[in-house]
Amino acid sequence: MRKALAAGLLSLCGIAATAEPLVLAALGDSLTQGYGLVEEDGFVPQLTRWLDAQGVEVKIINAGVSGDTTAGGAARVGWTLTPEVDGMIVALGGNDVLRGIDPAVSKSNLEKILTEAQTAKVPVLLIGMQAPGNYGADYKQAFDAMYPDLATQFGTLYAPSFFSGLQADGDPGAVQTYMQPDGIHPNARGVALIVDDLGPAVLDLIAAAKQRQ
Which residues form the signal peptide (predicted)? Predict the structure, then answer.
């Protein structure tokens, strides 16, 4: 709407208005930021190229901060959602698990992020994470469930897992082939598989953003 008003004013002034590409913000942690990779191999650049190959022109703001938790995302979502942002990808929670943060706290932080987006009328693609079993079954159940619960509550688009693209062949052992030596962050090949898996959901986000323009 804001972009449409600006284009209309330019038209009234007799100035040819060029349609601006959609702008997405990718709010996340090191997985979004591209930790351990050269810039062009990171999630945002690879996703941008994937979309370009689909004939979709879009600008993606890399709002990934290495080491960030859901609390960090909640603290900075306000200034991430600038007027130019048409849609937002939210991929946070991995560092909450590494620190053993109570899932109820993580869920509250994600609620703040989604509330900010809802207030700004910006559609969201929420990407889930899964907790390992070492914190116990109750922790894992609460953590894993918060993503689909929040997607339903706020009516967001939803992708069950950031890493599901690495498991497409059904061989859990093959996943390490696509990881960096730390076993936490994907390598360039892994990011490519992740982008292939999440790309269709991002296309849905872009479609939702266009409907709101």
Answer: 1-19
Domain spans in the chain, listed from the N-terminal domain onward: 21-211
Rg (CA), the chain: 18
Told to judge if 185 belongs to the known catalytic residues of this protein, a careful annotator would answer yes
What strands lie across the sheet with 58-64, from one edge to the other?
58-64, 22-28, 87-91, 124-127, 157-159
- State percent of the chain over pLDDT 70: 88
Query: Which pTM value belongs to this model?
Result: 0.89
How does pLDDT run across 60-76, given as a tens digit for each residue? 999 999 999 999 999 99
121: Cβ–Cβ under 8 A, 6 or more apart, which residues?
212
- Catalytic one of 138, 169, 171, 182: 182
Active-site residue, from 29, 30, 68, 96: 30
Per-residue pLDDT tens over the stretch 166-202: 986 656 666 789 999 999 999 999 999 999 999 999 9
Tell me which architecture the domain covering 21-211 has in CATH: 3-Layer(aba) Sandwich (3.40)
Q: What span, in angstroms and rounded, lies between the C-alpha atoms of 80 and 83?
A: 9
